[in-house]
Structure of Class II aldolase/adducin N-terminal domain-containing protein:
Amino acid sequence: MKRFMSQEVTMSAQLHDELIRLANEFGSDEAYARAGGGNASVKHGGVLYIKPSGTTLATLRDNDLVPLRIPVLLEALVSDEEVDGDPVMAAATAARVGDPGGRRPSVEILFHALIPDSLVLHLHPLVANALTCHEDGRALAERLLGNEAIWVDYTDPGVPLAKEIHRERQAFEARTGHPAPAITLMGNHGIIVSGNNRDEVAQRITWLSATIQAAIDETPAPVVPQRADDGASVAEAFRVAAGRDAIAWSNDDVVRSASSLSAAAVSRGPLIPDQIVYAGSFPVILEGIDDVEAAVASYEAEHGRQPITAVAPGQCVASVGDTDKAATIALGTFLDALVVGRDADRLGGSRVLNERERHFIETWEAESYRQQVSAGS
């Protein structure tokens, strides 16, 4: 009995080590995750150990993981019983093992619990999101990936998303007679990839990225215009008009080639929740140095809040914040959205989040908490 328990402990420790390696590896690559985006979990012995909300995959350590009882989470997934407050937090409270030490588990605990594989990694990759943010992503995913992935239409995070993933997994199994695949594509959100060891998960992510990138590459990338004024003066004028302490800005090739007024992230709306959380649903559009103050005032009057990000189309993108870290995260997130929108258009067309979907993220307390933790406030 002691030998059996020792082997079990060794296997559990190895699973934890492999999860942390996965999280750090992909979390350190901003093409897969930025700031507090994405999450990771390992399960064994009826317990799910999951990344805390707002912390980064890149720096995740084993002692950061929050343990939760899986049967309690699965019961919450199928229960119609009303609870006080946010149902995800209620489920987390009911399922917690020991004292969480002030750590709040990821808001996506339920879909981590329902996927049977030992390791689950959720990412927001730029390449894969060119597919998840496609206007007809389900059909394109079926053509490119076949039965190697399931598609889930955009659904509000938390309990609704977990239930929709569960429904799509069951539908796949009923239709094919096979277990649901280890890759899940979530419309206008990201991917979930699972496996029973590090290599399985990493190989599936690599295959998925390569397959989608090959489809993107079938259409030539936009031509990068010649560099105009670098935009520094416009960026500083935006910081002053917004009354913020910190600013980050860019006029790189992505900005010059993908920030026209017709770009989805510039004029139509956000492509994924992270864009809303960190960079704001819409940027303010700046036409020149003399336009900045009036443009910011007009934006505030229309949206009832200050802009976080500004776009001078084809010239520069700037983001402001209370700290350099917050401004840098906001800028990086918006530049990611430009890349995703550009490549979704290369695949045939992009879909942005609609007004109802945006409003849910803008007002959800869990996302506000994640933003605060990521910014270090």
